[in-house]
Task: inverse folding
């Protein structure tokens, strides 16, 4: 298995532009997580899906952020419009079962820079 | 503040020495996990310890859990330069569903 796949690996965009991050979880995993990591705030959970359904999105910063999981093998995190303070590394992770029952497998991350 | 908080924030040791990192948390948990993150990479799961366990071993790793003190420690024995990374504890939160909350991490540097 290739593990969790994220694309793009790096994204540089200008303030106000729409950004879409993509994630393909490990086949057979039914939980998917989006995290954001910065030096100031550390690793923050943004949203958690279970069986393609958003379970908790309380970590989503504001309405500019949205996430979808149209099927078990694909998820997107969209920022519209983007702002410089959104610059961070965004990780997608997947696991089998409820998150606390086992390990989460992380993708390599997308490093987003908003100018 | 975060559920899990690591101590120290940074640790520098010589190769061959042992490294101990601590994690404190605030609410009751089902289990606690430790992850490792190499620079520029995603987190990698190291070990999970359940709330009814007190100690767990995996190779050179030893994890302890004290639920009465709401704390855990990760010990890496006979450290190697390749152990240089950030180490995070992650806790679930019985009151917030089955999600993990990560601490701020300990940056470990092992000098050859």
Result:
């Amino acid at each position: 298995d290739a593990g969790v796949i994220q694309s793009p690996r790096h994204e540089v965009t200008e303030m106000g532009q729409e950004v879409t991050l993509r994630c393909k979880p490990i086949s057979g995993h039914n939980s998917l997580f989006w995290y954001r990591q910065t030096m100031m705030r550390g690793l923050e959970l943004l949203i958690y899906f279970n069986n393609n359904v958003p379970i908790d999105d309380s970590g989503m910063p504001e309405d500019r952020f949205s996430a979808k999981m149209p099927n078990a093998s694909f998820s997107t995190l969209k920022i519209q419009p983007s702002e410089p303070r959104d610059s961070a590394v965004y990780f997608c992770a997947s696991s089998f079962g409820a998150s606390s029952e086992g390990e989460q497998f992380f993708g390599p991350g997308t490093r987003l820079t908003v100018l | 503040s975060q559920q899990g908080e690591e101590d120290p924030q940074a640790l520098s040791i010589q190769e061959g020495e042992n490294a101990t990192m601590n994690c404190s948390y605030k609410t009751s948990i089902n289990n606690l996990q430790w992850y490792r993150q190499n620079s520029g990479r995603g987190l990698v799961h190291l070990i999970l310890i359940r709330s009814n366990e007190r100690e767990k071993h995996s190779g050179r790793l030893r994890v302890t859990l004290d639920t009465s003190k709401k704390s855990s420690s990760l010990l890496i024995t006979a450290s190697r330069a390749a152990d240089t990374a950030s180490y995070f504890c992650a806790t679930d939160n019985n009151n917030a569903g089955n999600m993990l909350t990560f601490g701020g991490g300990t940056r470990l540097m092992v000098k050859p």
Notes: The longest strand of chain B covers residues 43-50. The mean pLDDT of chain B is 90.
